Model the fold of this input.
Amino acid sequence: MPKKARTERRRAKKKTTCSDLSKRVKVCTACRLSKTRTRAVPAEGTHKAKVMFVGIGPGRQEDEAGRPFVGQSGKWFDRSLKRIGLTREEVWVTNLVKCRPFEGRRNRDPRANELAACAAHLDAEFELVKPNVVVPLGNIPLKHLLGLDGITKKRGMCFFKEDDPEVVYFPLLHPAVLVRDKDGNLDEYGVDLRNLRRLLARLGIGKYGKKVREQRKAGSAGKSAC
Done:
């Protein structure tokens, strides 16, 4: 691991607030992506979030704005949150890497050394937020977080890690895929969102979770599978 990445990892362990996390990301120079960024893109949300969404990395619009999921992908993301009964203010939104990986004018997948250099930031976010549900958005977060491949077959399903069985992982397609949608993913994505909404309701999270909690108090709540 590069020296700068080790330094960032040591510093990240001392993070205690959302503001600290954001400040460290904005000045991070642990990898070469820092040299080509317009703005670093820290995570957004509340440290009290029960749900964490993990994307790949900033695109051009995120790089310019310094915020995760803006533009057309952001609109898809916000609509998806609404359908599962949540808002941005209630969740944690982040990426595997905090600076835009690109070649020429096109986005590219982050390289292994870039993922490693940024790992300290994501580790610190997990330590701060301690989410109950983690939503990997796309194949790269799925592979990085769970060691699994094939988002089209794994999306909309529940997974658990042996070393942390209390956290539910529920992969979804990345919003950018839905913006382009040349493969007819929209119908299946709608089914995935309904399943995620049922999962959150069962866990008592969000608007629909509140309804289930009220039903449980009244003794009328049913069960739903993940």
